[in-house]
Amino acid sequence: MLSTFKQVESGEFIEASYNWKLEKLYVDLASAKNKGLTPVEKKILRGLLCGYSPREIADIIYKTSSSSSVRVYLSNGLYKYLEVMLYSQTSQKVKINHWSRVTNILEEAGYKLSSSVSQQFTPSLIEESVPPVIRQNFDWGEAVDTSIFYGREKELAQLKNWIIQDRCRLVSLLGMGGVGKTTLSVKLAEQVQDNFKYLIWRSLHHPPQLAELLASLLKFLTPEQDNQFILSDTIAGRTTQLIECFRNSRCLLVLDNLDSLLQPCTYAGIFRPEYEEYQEFFQRLGEVLHQSCVVLTSREKLKDVAAIEGVTLPVRALQLKGLTEVDCQEIIKAKGVTCSEYEWRLLVNRYAGNPLVLKIVLTTILELFDGKVASFLKQNILVFGGVRELIEEQLNRISAVEKKVLYWLALKQDILLLSAAVVDEMPPGMTKMELLETLESLIRRSLIHKHTTTFKLLPIFKEYLNQQLNEQNQLQKEVIS
C-alpha cells in the first residue's frame, strides 16, 4: 500500500496523511484551481482533515489566536476549489460555508483511506520507508530524433511552465509548415516526461478514426486492468474512460499534424466531415477537470478550441515564429555554408527564420552556387523549388475569399485595421465584417502576422503571390496581343 504515496508529508498536521488520500486530493484541487496549491493552502487543508478549527490552525501556524488569515484562505480559496472539484465529479452543486463540513464531504467523496489501509501508515513506518519510484510507461510512436536541436529556449520554458506549474489541460503549438512544431513537441515531451506516469506521442499524418485512436490509447493506459477493463462501444463512452484515466494518473498525450483532420477550402479550424467527432473530443479534454495534458501541433488553430482558450485558462496556444538569427546561424554552419554577417542576416530575414525553408535554400546554395550565399542573393529570387512547394501546400488549403484577401495584402505594405483607408480600399465585393472574419481565419492558419491592429504577410508569401500576379498579368497581355 505504500506505493500509493508519491512522497511523505512534512511540516504541520502530517498526521493527515495517515487517514486521507492527500496526493490525489492535492492533484484534484490543483485541477479545480488551475494551478498547484500553495504550501500554506496545503497546511490549512491538512489541519481541517485532522479536525482542527480555523482558530486552532492559526495558533499552530501563525502562533496567534486570531483566525482571520486562515478564514480568508478558506472562504476565498479552499472552499471554492473544493466546490468546483466536487461539482466536476458529481455534477451536483455543494456549498461549503463552515469548516466542520469539509471532512464529512471529502469522506463521502472517497478521499478517506479505509481503516485497514490507514493503520498501516503509522508515523514510524512512514519515517523508515523510502518513497517508491513511480513506474512510468512511455510510447514514443514515430517521434522524430531531436539529438540535433536549435534554440527555442524561451518557448520551451514557457511551455514547461504551462504544463508543470499551471497544469494546463490542452496546449496547441501552431505555425506555418517547416517552422519546427513537430521537433519542438518531441523536445518538450522529453523535458517534461519525469512529471508524468504515462507518455504517448502520436502522429496524425494518416489520421485514424477517433474510435480507433481511443481504443489504442485506452489499451496502453489500462494494462493492469486488461482482464477487467471493458472498452465502451461508443465514442462518448470511450472519451469518458480516457478522461477517467487522465484523472487517475498524470498522462501526457502529444498529437502531431492535427491539421490532417481539418477541412480545406473553407475557413480555418473546421474538421473534415469524416473526423467531426474529434471536435467534441478536444472540447471535453479542455473543459473537463483532470490532471493530465494534451499537446496538439497544427498549422491551423481549431475554431472551437480557440473559444475556450485564454492566457490564464487551462487551454492555451503558442504561435511559433521563426528561429532567432543566432540559432539560424548554427543551421548555416551545420550545412557547411560560409558567408559574411551581412549575408547570413539578410538570408535569415528573407525567410523569416523558418528552419526547414532555410535548409532547403542552403541546399540549393551548396548545389548550384558552390556554397556562396552572395552569388545566390544576386539572383534576387526568393521563392523556388522546395520553397514554392511548401508554400503551395499551405495555400492550396485556403478558401477563395482568403486567397482574395491574400492577393489584396500582397499589393500593400501593411494594413491598419482601424484605418479609414482600409474601408476605402476594401477588396472588391467584400464587407468589413467579411474582411474581419477572413483576417481572423488567415491568422489561425499562420499565413499572416498581427502586431496590435496591423496585419502583414511574411516576405516569402508576399513574393510568391506577387509572382502569381505577374504571371497572370503577363498571360493576359499575351492573350490580348
Automatic annotation (TrEMBL):
InterPro entries per UniProt: NB-ARC, P-loop_NTPase
Domain NB-ARC residues, every copy: 153-257
Organism superkingdom: Bacteria
SUPFAM superfamilies tied to this protein: P-loop containing nucleoside triphosphate hydrolases
Alphabetical list of PANTHER family matching this protein: HTH-TYPE TRANSCRIPTIONAL REGULATOR RV0890C-RELATED (PTHR47691:SF3), REGULATOR-RELATED (PTHR47691)
Protein name in the entry: NB-ARC domain-containing protein
